[in-house]
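Re: duplicated header lines in exported structure tokens

Our pipeline writes sequence and tokens for each protein into one text file. With two proteins the header for the second block appears twice in some exports. Here is an export where it did not happen, for reference. First protein block:
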Amino acid sequence: MSNFRIKPGLSGESHEKNSMFFLISVLLLWGLGIFTLFVCTPSTAERLFVNKYYFVTRQLIFSAVSFVGLIFFAIVPLKFIRKILPVFVLGTFILCFFPLIPKIGTTSHGASRWVIIPHVGGFQPSEFAKFAVVLYLANLFEKYLGGTHKEEKNFLYPLLGLFAFVIVVFLQKDFSTGLFIFVVGVVMFFVSGAKMNWFVPLVILAIPCVLLLIAMEPYRIERLISHLHPDEYELTIGYQRNAAARAIVNGGLWGNGMGSGLTSIHIPEIQTDYIFAGWCNAMGLLGVGVYLALLVFFSWRGYSIAFSTPNRFCCYGSFGCTTMILLQSIINIGVVCGFLPTTGIPLPFFSSGGTSLMVTMAMCGFILNCSHTSEDEGEITSEYEDNTKTNSKFETIGGVVVENYD
């Protein structure tokens, strides 16, 4: 059965052009995120912490650390990244068990997602798991796959690792993040060359597992029901969604300006998962258009890097990182606008939170690193191309190879 595969180094675009435009898109999204917190959170911050610029100040501190991570992953040699990758992946996997340990982890909204560090604050290991899974899969795809029939059995190694991370995140009762990591992992399997018929048993297995996990927690069922019947739960579990809808509608075409509209509309967690509703209210449909244009520009440059890098590890890794950030943004917007049930997925670059911002910036740094990968670091490409020629048929469109093993 035919399948798709990203083949590295096909677009011919200059690395300098890719790197420059991608960095510009990252800086614009980060700057817009800081501005959004400045516009939308003063009343909430003043009510909770007296200081109306609490969330902005906090995010700027996190940003300083995050830019260090971006620079690190952007300039460190790829060989070093791959050398420390087993430690990073294993360490992240072990760290994901920490929220389950009493007095170390803490429970919020029914999930044990956070690890508390005294006098410092908390962080979410599941956020690091997103980055770890992408690099883990990219490394194994580059190492084991070569375009031959024998490679099918080698999909077992990355598949087991993906399931291990998903299960440990599920143990934290963080259903949405676990499912999100699984979906991104499946997308990476697809673009790495897994045959289409591999996805049939995966989907058949995943559907009852998802339904079972939803049924195990009453609040998940309530969220799903409130999503299907929002008017019946307007003042209870569906309040957050309905408040966000009112804020979006009140924003109109031009918006209400800086903070003027949100003083009369209380949106719980406006600084985190529902920050997009505040942006819509303040800047209106025009502001939504600006954000979506930046997100498309960011994704375009990220995928351009994935399709042009001569190294398969970078190819799969940068594709996975771009997909992780893009899909996370789409899901968050879908939740805020009422198209999807409520989840705990933050909006990259915008939602207040140090762990999410640090991981997002680290992934962007890795993509930047891939944008200037040298030919010497991508020698594996020639081996890949030789193996690809053993297939009976293949064709390339842009940076995508469509292969047929018949």
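Second protein block, exported in the same file:
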Amino acid sequence: MASVSVKNIYFSYGAEGGSPEPVLRDVSLDIGEASFTAVTGRTGSGKSTLLQILAGLLAPDSGSVTIGGREIYSAADPGEGGTRRFRKQSQKKAAIPRKEICRLAGMVFQYPEHQLFEASVLADVMFGPLNMGFWKEEAREKAEAALKAVGLDMQYCEKSPFRLSGGEKRRAAIAGVLAMDPEIIIFDEPTAGLDPAGRREIAGIALSLKEQGKGIIWASHYMDEAADLADRVIVMDAGRIAMDGSPAEIFSRTDELRALGLDSPEPVRILSELKKAGIEAGAGVTSDGAAAGILRAWRARHDP
């Protein structure tokens, strides 16, 4: 299991031209072992960029990232006058080899087509372990175990990944990350575009991985997912962390969320409307919590 520590991260795209407006601004956070952290925010808030830095896919202009006690990126020196100096993209390098980063953190992209490229599902899922130096038979064992873990049995092995359904592609992409056995799995909008059944399947896989001791970082604009799945919610705005706390803490701050262009989970909205109608059903943020509160309110009114 691994914890994550991010200190004073700045990042901007196309830094070669000088000091453009940063996408991330002095972001610092610590994430404990085997936690389920949801990251949310409007489009352009910086959440996807932050996730790619945590996965070792982008290097910050300055600041440091440590996963499992290992420094992935180290801080840059301040520029003249003590101001922060943005390094050129070509100068950004990780402190450890890429394959070692893959053992610490793996990322599942929003669009599985960005991860799937081999002729067969099995070959695709084997690619990561092979690239990490495992023998072919070891890589196959890891790939088969990962496919089983996401609910894709052996009949999928020889299929083209591009002939799978949307939900199956997402599961194959997750298997490709799982096969490398990272300690933290980062999901970037993993349920976008899926039907409710597909969203539940992917969420169930993530929860199962957390139960196995994996750390989960889950970026989503679905507030209900953050409320139901996470034990911590981070809200980003304009490249900064605007809010950070438990789902109950974050989703009780409805006015602040609205000011950031975000809505509350549906259970919170339903309970709020009931309260306006004079029915006190509690302040749950999850579907189960809201249902329990509504049931208690109904019984209080109707039971003798």
